[in-house]
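Example 3.
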Amino acid sequence: MTFGKGHHLHLIDGSAFIFRAYHALPPLTRKSDGLPIGAVAGFCNMLHRYVEGNTGPDAPTHVAVIFDKGSHTFRNDMYDLYKANRDAMPEDLRPQMPLTRSATEAFNIACKEKEGFEADDIIATLAVQARAAGGQCTIISSDKDLMQLVGDGVEMLDAMKNNRIDREGVFAKFGVYPERVVDVQALAGDSVDNVPGAPGIGIKTAALLINEYGDLDALLERAGEIKQPKRRQTLIDNADQIRLSRRLVQLDENTPLDFTIDDLEVRDPDPETLLGFLAEMEFRTLTKRIADQMGKEAPVIADAPAAPDAPVVADLPFDPEKYEQVSDAAALQRWIDAIYEVGYVAVDTETTGLNEMTAELVGISLATQPGTACYIPLIHKAGASDDLFGSEDLAEGQMKTEDALRMLTPMLEDPAILKIGQNMKYDAKIFAQIGITVAPFDDTMLMSYAQHAGLHNHGMDTLSERYLSHTPIPIKPLLGSGKSAITFDKVPLDKAVQYAAEDADITLRLWQFLKPQLHSAQVTKVYETLERPLVPVLAAMERSGVKVDRDTLSRMSNAFAQKMAGLEDEIYEIAGRKFNVGSPKQLGEILFDEMGIEGGKKGKTGAYATGVDILEDLATEHELPARVLDWRQLSKLKSTYTDALQTHINADTGRVHTSYSIAGASTGRLASTDPNLQNIPIRSEEGRRIREAFIAEEGKTLVALDYSQIELRILAHIADIPALKEAFERGDDIHAMTASEMFDVPMDEMTPDIRRRAKAINFGVIYGISGFGLARNLRIPRSEAQGFIDRYFERFPGIRTYMDDTKAFAKEHGFVQTLFGRKIHTPEIASKGPRAGFAARAAINAPIQGTAADVIRRAMIRMPDAIKDLPATMLLQVHDELLFEVEKGHEDALIDAARDVMENASDPVVKLAVKLTVDAGKGANWAEAH
DNA sequence: GACATCACG
DNA sequence: GACGTACGTGATGTCC
């Protein structure tokens, strides 16, 4: 078959795949011999995902993966500094390079490279040939150097983001169409490849110049006509360097190749070769997945001899057929006996829903050793799940719930038996509903969180894939989705047993794997003092809930609706037509296209940005954006708060029960969901009134206590800033003090505006400040913002040291730590480009935010005991605030007790050089209490 | 389901 | 020297 019209060539940028794979995965090694294998694993996964996605009319007829070969190319002969500032290839990546070639061949995909040429040149040559033959070509890469090739049958595809780049996409990136990309690159240069370009000229300016003069040659010829003197001189002085740069970025479309496109025809992989390679690499999950898809038996991957200090995990295969259904007392007794034999058991509950307040217990699964697990169904319904009306009759083969619980409760509450769960808070709440207190327990989710926060999430699917190389049975096929979804009690028993028992089995295996590592990772203390003890505390808070007055919300909702309708009329009037005010896309078109307002900026999706910042700027000149801002505020308040909150009021309790995720935020903070009660409005007057709907029960009062400036105090301690510490000791207004120090204004002459600036800088420091960010926040020129920052560092030199030290620590270890030993991993700190900047700022922020999170966790854990003699309940946590409900008359006693716990929460583990101060308030509702 | 927007600390 | 930039979250509506 000769390549031509109707054919489609795919060219995969192999190096891009490799580096993405390398940075996306932790440094995995092959179990049997420790060979670094992470990049190969990621590479194979990407290749497999790519092949899977190749269906439909657009599928390629020809494909090749193109690699770079050697580091010396013809460009180095032109310019010896080309790519000279590239970091050397990481030690553990080098041995993986040949393996990625083998992997490509194992997938039976053509694999091409050529000494002295970059992959980009080969890609260029093939793309041009494909175009000349009248075929289509897709380059799978997001490398901007390839963008010059786009157009006329050639396009690019970012496989990770599934983002196609055509001529317009290139224009969005470079400000010129593909045929002029080289000109722009020649001017702008490229720091990554060390292409010099013209000093002081970036892509924006380059595109401007090229568009004005047509092309680079014309520009250089007529450089004397450029108006800006500096720019003119730069171009005149550097003309040779610019021409050299153009030769460097220009891809060679005539690379001599010893093959043709016809040799790249798509071929099916040979199962034996592919599976053999994957097995040799010891990719258990991928081997099995691909074997299943091909309908082949997965080759056996030999168990590696465990390294002496590696935890021993039984590598027993998962077999859903081996799980037992427990149907009677005799069988259950055998399980209980087995549990007492070993002293621990993995427990998992199945219920009718995810909301522990309303969910009903459907069954319980137990596991005592890997592969040995059972499911005790309790209220599964009889009849097929496709029965139109369902059946209310219970299925055969189930114990009565009360009989089963009577036998299980002593074990669940027995201090001698350790109960192991994955996200035990959920199961503990289900059991608490029926009066059972599960203790003691371990939680595999929290063990993973203590060790790996920042690396990945800690759901069972993730942990099982990562640490057991096993994909759990998915729940979706059992329950369905959308309207036709059923609850677990409708799942046929045979399927239910396999699914439920497997969860307990996985949990037990994870525990065996993760528990011993707590110690070696030195996070046992974190797990034992900050994670596990918080579970029962949060469970109790969530079960308590907070009383919310539906009438108040409903009245506010109506008021908002009326105001919104009025605003909509005004908005349509100004716009001259009706449109959906809630659609940023339509709003952008109205503002910038139809009304012709200047300064519309398009984001990466090509839509105009219409965020608050932009609308606020426009609002000084125009009516419409001002009205839209008002409308948006009301819309937010109505939909997210006054309306949605009502649906969360529990019918039985009349209260709202949030759920806190303990292992969600990487820094150690909690997160509140369903509903989120950590973002109830307060900053605007209108929004603040929503807190009036959060009320105390009759005869009770709400009490709120919050840490004052906890993060700045922690910063003062960690970075050891005497001036800050002294100011906190004196009880000064910290932002005013900072302002006075920085701007040489005496405290008694402080103005609100100067203080506001200092406050922004104080917060900026906590976030890993940048001149750009501060400038945007304060809406001042960047140079001025940078001046403030310089001044700040000068006055408080410890801050810069802290920032530099923290970054260096993160680079060296891949994580940072809080004062209490919590680890927050920052894997991206090693990456190049803007990602590293993000990671660096996150690394600077994490010890501060994380230590504050640890402090309030410690307070919460001690709180139940400290207030046990008071008629008070802890209801909510909002990062630096705790909300309580207390019987009238006991408010002050509660404040005294709770404040004492909070202010001394770091004792005795960490002796803070700055005292922690807690403000308190009380009232009939949350607005008053705060 | 991605994206934009906006609520909180 | 330019790049793209404040930290951490969750919920909602639009649009594909």
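The CA atoms of residues 420 and 442 of chain A lie 5 Å apart. The domain at 320-521 of chain A is CATH 3.30.420.10 (Nucleotidyltransferase; domain 5).
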